[in-house]
Amino acid sequence: xxxxxxxxxxxxxxxxxxxxxxxxxxxxxxxxxxxxxxxxxxxxxxxxxxxxxxxxxxxxxxxxxxxxxxxxxxxxxxxxxxxxxxxxxxxxxxxxxxxxxxxxxxxxxxxxxxxxxxxxxxxxxxxxxxxxxxxxxxxxxxxxxxxxxxxxxxxxxxxxxxxxxxxxxxxxxxxxxxxxxxxxxxxxxxxxxxxxxxxxxxxxxxxxxxxxxxxxxxxxxxxxxxxxxxxxxxxxxxxxxxxxxxxxxxxxxxxxxxxxxxxxxxxxxxxxxxxxxxxxxxxxxxxxxxxxxxxxxxxxxxxxxxxxxxxxxxxxxxxxxxxxxxxxxxxxxxxxxxxxxxxxxxxxxxxxxxxxxxxxxxxxxxxxxxxxxxxxxxxxxxxxxxxxxxxxxxxxxxxxxxxxxxxxxxxxxxxxxxxxxxxxxxxxxxxxxxxxxxxxxxxxxxxxxxxxxxxxxxxxxxxxxxxxxxxxxxxxxxxxxxxxxxxxxxxxxxxxxxxxxxxxxxxxxxxxxxxxxxxxxxxxxxxxxxxxxxxxxxxxxxxxxxxxxxxxxxxxxxxxxxxxxxxxxxxxxxxxxxxxxxxxxxxxxxxxxxxxxxx
Length: 599
Prior knowledge:
With about 600 residues, the protein is of the alpha+beta class. Helices cover about 50% and strands about 15% of the residues.
């Protein structure tokens, strides 16, 4: 594995110096961006092929919208070596080498796996494997496509090698199969999915998976309920269907060819593109000292490039992600600021800025007044990409922490729909249902999260279920003892005056927030010295800052909730301190403060 990553890194870094000599092209479509070195046709063909695969999935599952949690990028290059799929926080990169006969087959499998991951609930291994292989076997020929062919390189098992479908359905995927059994597993999974599609039984397969995944039913029992057949009868049906491997010809899904126009990629952007793949491939694979050292070398190379191209927003975005993942908050925010100042159109930088405010955390809230401090940036990210699952998830958690359950529930529901296989997202949604008093729904989601593949989430979900059961049992005991008000009892806010006052304050804040449109102004920053601070009875304040001889007025909406770095609290007596201020412009030499750092 280590040699594989080192080879990938060497090849990618070897391409980078030649990027200026070899022209790269890109094509953007509804769902992806393709890149090709030396040929705009390669980029167009890859974009068309990728879009067609996505449209086939839409037709098979009757979907109107396909989304990706991380952007999809296809790299068509010579030679392509190393993993076909490289996952990074910036994008998922699928590489294709046109010179290799089976390269597109492997790429199609990777694209199919990404589509399933972000658009279909957690399923059994046979289903995922079968759908991926079915998509990889689709043949496109102009305006016609052929469905039902085995993907290139697949060897169908002989009679004595056939795995009984009862065993196929019981495979959980937790234990890796030997190579020979894995090939048979993939082929039989393809055969079963092919039969389901040709017989129009996918809806019944969904019912089967729902029973197994959500209700915990045994595969044999779920099979009888969904298909009214036993596993042995289904085994016979599928094996009989393989005696005559007929295919089906249909019109190719329509993709607007006129919209697939290539553009040239600058040498600088091509450099950053390839460095990203190397940098994050090494980061994700840095499980030993050699891989970690290789990641450090790649990061250093990108930093050197950045110093020579300070005005390239893409390199600042890459470094912002790299430092954030390493927990280097100081360097991360510096590049977030630079990226936003150069181009604020990328939603990930607004998300990262909010995450920086949250001390780098993505799955929980670490700061007070999180919705106030992070909300504007997260809403700016969602305005640019409404399907940005991570931003919607963090906004929902911030709202939940601010005891604002209704919008929190809406955002966490949407985030879970965008990441239907994330146990973490379902667990956070369960917390929102619990806060809203919908305990049965919360318990079901906790149970589902506990059966996922993330052991940390499974443990948390199990503990939360136990806590919920104890609390519900305690409530029932109180009710039996007459310590809980009956359903007809009326309540006054004077029953708990402190809580009533706090709730009225929260309602007032929510009302004001609902009436305030999202602030989409670009975040900028300035360095200078504080000349004076003007504070009044209200929590507002006005900073006067001298920056390179120019006097700035920076408004602070609430000095008690201001984001401060290098100092514990806001001081109305500041004078002469050197500061870095993130702000949103409100006029000439005027702005509204986002954060302040005492240097």
